[in-house]
Amino acid sequence: MKILSAEQLKEADEVTLKNEGISSTRLMERAASLVFSEIHTRLEGADINIKIFCGIGNNGGDGLVVARLLHKYGYKVEVYVVNYSDKRSDDFLVNYDRYKKESNTWPALIKREEDFPEISPGDFCVDAIFGIGLNRPAEGWLAKLLLHINNSGAFCLAVDMPSGLFPNKVPGEDAAVIKANYTLTFQTPKLVFFLPETMKYAGEVQVMDIGLDRAYLKEVKAKAQLIGKREARQLYKPRDKNSHKGDYGHTLVVGGSYGKIGSMVLSAKSVLRAGAGLCSVFIPKCGYDILQTSFPEAMLITDKDEHELTNIETDLEPDVICFGMGAGKSSKTVKAFKALLEQTQKPMLIDADGLNMLSENNELLNLLPKHSVLTPHPKELERLIGKWEDDFEKMDKIEKFTKKYKIILVLKGAHSFIFSGKHTYINNSGNPGMATAGSGDVLSGIIAGLMSQEYEPLVAAILGVYLHGLSGDICAEEKGYEALISGDISDNLGKAFLALMNDEKKI
Ligand SMILES: NC(=O)C1=CN([C@@H]2O[C@H](COP(=O)(O)OP(=O)(O)OC[C@H]3O[C@@H](n4cnc5c(N)ncnc54)[C@H](O)[C@@H]3O)[C@@H](O)[C@H]2O)[C@@H](O)CC1
Ligand SMILES: [K+]
Question: For binding AMP, which residues are annotated in this chain's numbering (predicted)?
Fold first, then answer.
């Protein structure tokens, strides 16, 4: 699903009005009716106090439509107009009158702190103060109102966006922003719902298709795309009945050092679980027994050194090399890595200590085969590209970095981001249970395993990240977040492939 900017959404809005020949009031009614239906479906007529806070722009107009419909269906509704300016939008005014007619009441006006209503923890608040039109931080009593709602302990549903959150930048540290439990957002998700610094504000996000112009949405170039099941499924290549293991490629997994052989077991297993035909493993001698015993499906080659990689020589011709897990970064290993890079033309996957070696020996970056996939977590990324001011600057820096070295970068996180230089993809599977040792080793194995099956490196990265998260979701259903360990993610990958093609299953 495309993630559009506020400007693009406003343009989509205008194109829709023109092409459908409808008024903006009609479009507002359509959008806000969906919000009402969602609330009505969940509350089922519950006898609770619903407090609706409306700004004086179109987000506030949406709030007034929701208020009118809830009132009509017998809910206990109190409307507060957050009167931060006298410039009320036309559609706000139309719906202000309609609400007054429907309810025979005048909404309360909030103009200063003394006007704030009491909010009990059992109340249901609707935040319709600001949407994508926010253009400066909320200040004075307005900021206090947002904090008053946050501190009330009441459930808060944000319409389109949590108020105080900019669609295109990170709010300052002390900025007042609504911390919603749930956000019903119009037409497309907003980028800030997925960035580490701002994702806490939106709570759970649901996208409402308000029927904006299809042709516009199809043509418009989005800065980023959200990858859910539908998108991931389109990338999957079904297997030919008449095939053999040679058709699914050969992955060579290189890494490990004394005490870190387990990471290699996890990666290598995940290579085969992702469907690669063959998996060879290159490790220091100390890992021989461990790997042969725990993973007999792999072919094994050892370094001359007992404890670390010093000379990665094989006569194999793998389709992809997955490098770095548990490798350490001694000078001998750096030398061996350099020689490997010099010999390799096909795109590689580089993870963990492979990334650390790249950041400590910058000249190695120039040796990376084109379209290689790098899979840093935020700390590894910082070592590679330096510090950033905020998430937006981080994205700019990554874009330049990926363009410069013609690589693909997977930034791991609650929502992992995949950068191709031209486009950004945001993964929507996974859960907090996956923040566990070895989860990254499993991911590198999955992506490399897909690359060896002739998935383009970018496609392997997107699909691999999605499947990794989906498998984690399946594990979490069975084991809960705390008990989930990374071997489970690898072991359940088969169920993730099945769930990818299955419409009935929730996950
Ligand atoms: N674009 C679309 O496709 C649709 C938009 N709709 C609604 O319209 C919203 C956008 O409406 P608006 O453009 O009127 O903007 P908002 O309602 O988000 O904001 C209202 C006005 O507040 C002022 N303002 C911004 N920051 C302020 C601050 N910190 N303190 C005081 N005043 C501030 C601005 O001048 C802005 O125009 C969307 O978020 C959505 O809720 C929907 O009605 C349906 C369709
Ligand atoms: K809002």
Answer: 412-416, 440
